[in-house]
Design a protein that fits this description.
The complex is a heterodimer. By secondary structure, chain A is mainly beta. Helix content of chain A is about 0%, strand content about 45%. In chain A, the strands form two sheets. In chain A, strands 1, 3, 4, 7, 8 and 9 form a six-stranded mixed beta sheet that branches. In chain A, strand 3 and strand 4 form a beta hairpin. By secondary structure, chain B is mostly beta strands. Helices cover about 0% and strands about 55% of the residues of chain B. In chain B, the strands form two sheets. In chain B, strands 2, 4, 5, 6, 9, 10 and 11 form a seven-stranded mixed beta sheet that branches. A four-stranded antiparallel beta sheet of chain B has the order 1-3-8-7, with no helix packed on it. In chain B, a hairpin with a 5-residue loop joins strand 4 and strand 5. Classes of the chains: A mainly beta, B mainly beta. Chains A and B meet through strand 3, strand 7 and strand 8 of A and strand 5, strand 9 and strand 10 of B.
Amino acid sequence: SSELTQPPSMSVSPGQTARITCSGDALPKQHVYWYQQKAGQAPVLVIYKDSKRPSGIPERFSGSSSGTTVTLTISGVQAEDEADYYCQSSDINNIGVFGGGTKLTVL
Amino acid sequence: EVQLVQSGAEVKKSGESLKISCKGSGYNFIRYWIGWVRQKPGKGLEWMGIIYPGDSDTRYSPSFEGQVTISAETSITTAYLQLNSLKASDTAMYYCARQAYGDYAADYWGQGTLVTVSS
């Protein structure tokens, strides 16, 4: 899998919308998965196959894709959404790669 | 309930070897890929490799090929990550994660195993 690029950090105020991007040349051909990792905890899957939400994940989490960029959108950000977010994709040989992660701060 | 339970924290010296375990329960172990992820202190997630317990098909990230060994023992529904010739730079949290059926998503994660390597 090729590299995935994320912004290292971003900050939003409660109630605002956070948009975290993930870019990679292979993304038009590969699905992207998003994970939330809170301090001291294991990651949790929040979006799969670019835009699908697992059961139990709040509706304010959504995903979209356009060409070589995919976006995780958190609408109406809450304090509990403060975490690191990672995108991940895998190639046809099931070799995966993670983006560098984005630290989301809720002001 | 699907669970992945990893072995406990380890403290090792440089040059030693280590085998971390990840026991799966609550699902058909042989039919789901299990992957391993490294996270160094204060750093991001790194995808290491993955195994299909049903036939032991194993794939490694180029960054970890030849550096680690992934295996599985289906009789006890356990996957392993072996680290050889440990260095201080191997100090990290190691996670196992189940790959969703027919997909590449890691839908369930172990709690992590902290490995500390001292010189």
